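Input sequence (356 aa), recorded before submission:
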Amino acid sequence: MKKLLISLALASATLTVNSQNMENPNTNTSLAPAEQLNLTQEWDKVFPKSDKVNHRKVTFVNRYGITLAADMFTPKDAEGQLPAIAVSGPFGAVKEQSSGLYAQQLAERGFLTIAFDPSFTGESGGMPRRVASPDINTEDFSAAVDFLSVQPDVDPERIGILGVCGWGGIAIEAAINDPRIKATVASTMYDMTRVNANGYFDADNSAEKRNANRAAMAKQRTEDYRNGSYTRAGGVVDPLPADAPQFLKDYHAYYKTPRGFHPRSGNSTDGWNATSALPFVNFKFFEYAGELENAVLIVHGDKAHSYYFGKDTFGLLKGDNKQLLTVKGASHCDLYDQLDIIPFDEIAGFYNKYLR
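Predicted structure, token format:
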């Protein structure tokens, strides 16, 4: 009888502890541990290193437990808490390309900046590789804000973000959901949900075309699972076909030449997994764009094939702290790296105004 009472008491105690753990999930949980990433320490960017800023590699963990890798740029001789900007993009690129250039240029103008590789790409963690997600990639920007908010040399009330190309749309979507982001710049932006669901210029905006697209990717999922590996969709086509449109020629001139080629870039090599576009077909950005209270600057060239994304998205925004800056004569890829065309002083002025 005595042994039975002891057993019942132990069982009761175990049940109580388990019940407490269920009621208080923080008892046995914490932020996901940072993954040990294999980070390249030498300068392997497609742009020269500035002598006006300090540079180092950093990592941080997003809400899904994925460790992200970033380059941090800090103005030399900076003192006190600085305004900070997190940069990513273009879609399918890595931080050694356009986003790192933007981050370095803005650091020269007085901001602490990071350029990060999105989840599943570049030097960042996450498996399988080369997968895109409208949810997780939006979270990547908020995770960058998490990281910047606790840095001793950052003013947590003065944090902005900047997205290039497809990450311009993702940046605006992140800002809609995260009011800690006080100012957002989208440069030569794409709406990745619109282009995947509707095709370029909405030419495939029909249930028939979308269902055919879904069916093809669903079939590919079966094949990938059977084979135990993901088929890559291919990066920027190389060599170019004779009838390639001008914007494809522009992509080739950046990603496939010494100007912008990088071996970790999907656009420079074998691209995304072939099924990566699947969630973007059913996901719609900017549903609540009119509720975004903080400042937004959309920068776009009037010769860019993507210009309609910038103009249409700007039309959804409300408030006198929203601006569309049109760069006359600029193509889509001109705003990737052309220092004489990208309006960095105007971009810095926008951040100085709204990160006060």
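Checked by second reader. The CA atoms of residues 122 and 326 lie 31 Å apart.
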